[in-house]
Structure to design on (572 residues):
């Protein structure tokens, strides 16, 4: 595992109230890649018993943000600019897992792909795939 | 206000646990258009104090689903197939509002646009815009 | 019609070989909005006799670029960063028209929506809608 | 190489006038994957000397369509429904190559990813990546 911006990645996971509320947990983090996990409960479902799109989107986005943040320079943060997600299969199971991988890290824009898997521990299937563009900014800069 | 599938739209809002958990409320519903509202709390924020992308995405998606469901035939449901969202401005304020409008209602796919506004009651600004493709299915059909 | 970067918009249309080759023509340009037109020929079609996606995408993108360029500062150019398009109906007819409108002009990113219409002069229908994110750069800057 | 719908894939490449006009050629086709190539000329460029977005989009879309068609049942055709593309780097070089891979083949929707590379024969770089949703239809069906 090479050097990476560990402080910023930890802050992204530990200081986001919506992520704590949802129950999303980091599993592993290295430069340009982040994995996360979510133990599913009834409150994560939509009206037909499937995992709500919003849960998958939040996980895909936030894990992508952590992957992008891992490659940011000290003092820089990343903010989602553009997000697109395809739902490939209905999501049912006991938990979700997400793998986010940086496709291109740029000085102002970073593009990350996130895959979301759902099922039981021994039988996880790809249920959605997202592409996330992150704006790389310095907190005092004007956006 | 013309005739529309009121039962299905009400079910979409009242029977989705993640939506109740988030606090999303319908404001008005008619054929092909749905408006919703969310009173913001600290738990809806990300690590820099802005409204989390996932909150906006959930609202944009679910309100689009209700707008699409309003035009579904009896017995049909809609499921998100594809979702893309642009974040236009950082979102800060006391509440969010969303307006979802059907762009094209088809027999198998319906396309909806959702605009998300954030701010205070007297000063709301467009913060994100989504395009949502919904698959129109009969619950017993094979997807 | 307010002041706008007329020189840059004219260059966008007159100096792009692929646009001349395709036959795309500007119809009207003002600050934040551009309209264009294309007279259809057999060479614009795909294998089933409909207008090829690539023709619609090129038109939606280039017209969006001109709309974005109209709001650029002197010396700045815009480059497509992200493009998404929904095909709403099969496109058949004698010509295409496109209206591109700036949704948000930023210092580094500009978001534009493009609507593409197809049909005959008296009967044009919306066939596709695109959202285009443009990076606003200075030609000597490093991207 | 397994069995696949070779007739439909060949038709997709040989019977599309816009593809012949552009100069796009198939390189290899198997079930669920298609590769194509384009020798670049001045007419493929935009106003700043880069390969026009529309050329890359056409290539990404059409190669995705061929990959999707390779998995279609006899009598079925695929039509682009949704297309999104990220431009990762400015494209300059002597030719383009595209690899399209089916991510999920469904009975009504197929999702394909396309990677576009640009450069010289010995030095090709990934310049854009697209996700394409194809509607799988029978030509006589109502869309």
């Amino acid at each position: 595992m090479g050097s990476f911006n560990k402080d910023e990645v930890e802050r992204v996971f530990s200081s986001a109230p919506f992520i704590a509320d949802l129950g999303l947990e980091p599993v592993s983090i290295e430069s340009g890649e982040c994995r996360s996990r979510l133990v599913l409960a009834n409150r994560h479902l939509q009206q037909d018993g499937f995992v709500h799109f919003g849960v998958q989107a939040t996980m895909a986005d936030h894990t992508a943000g952590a992957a992008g943040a891992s490659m940011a320079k000290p003092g820089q943060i990343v903010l989602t600019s553009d997000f697109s997600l395809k739902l490939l299969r209905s999501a049912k199971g006991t938990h979700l897992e997400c793998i986010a991988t940086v496709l291109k890290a740029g000085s102002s824009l970073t593009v990350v792909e996130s895959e979301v898997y759902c099922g039981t521990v021994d039988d996880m299937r790809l249920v959605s795939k997202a592409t996330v563009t992150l704006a790389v900014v310095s907190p005092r800069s004007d956006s």
